[in-house]
């Protein structure tokens, strides 16, 4: 079952991206480098509740 998640920028704390992920294959929290339009650079984004 795929669940909806929200990714938050670690620099400015804005919630920029909505995604889905499979909890069976990735039970841990997701972290990716994505572009933040508020910081105007690629930063680390972490999964929030």
Automatic annotation (TrEMBL):
<protein>
    <recommendedName>
        <fullName>Large ribosomal subunit protein bL33</fullName>
    </recommendedName>
</protein>
<keyword id="KW-0689">Ribosomal protein</keyword>
<dbReference type="InterPro" id="IPR038584">
    <property type="entry name" value="Ribosomal_bL33_sf"/>
</dbReference>
<dbReference type="GO" id="GO:0005840">
    <property type="term" value="C:ribosome"/>
</dbReference>
<keyword id="KW-0687">Ribonucleoprotein</keyword>
<dbReference type="Pfam" id="PF00471">
    <property type="entry name" value="Ribosomal_L33"/>
</dbReference>
<dbReference type="InterPro" id="IPR001705">
    <property type="entry name" value="Ribosomal_bL33"/>
</dbReference>
<comment type="similarity">
    <text>Belongs to the bacterial ribosomal protein bL33 family.</text>
</comment>
<dbReference type="InterPro" id="IPR011332">
    <property type="entry name" value="Ribosomal_zn-bd"/>
</dbReference>
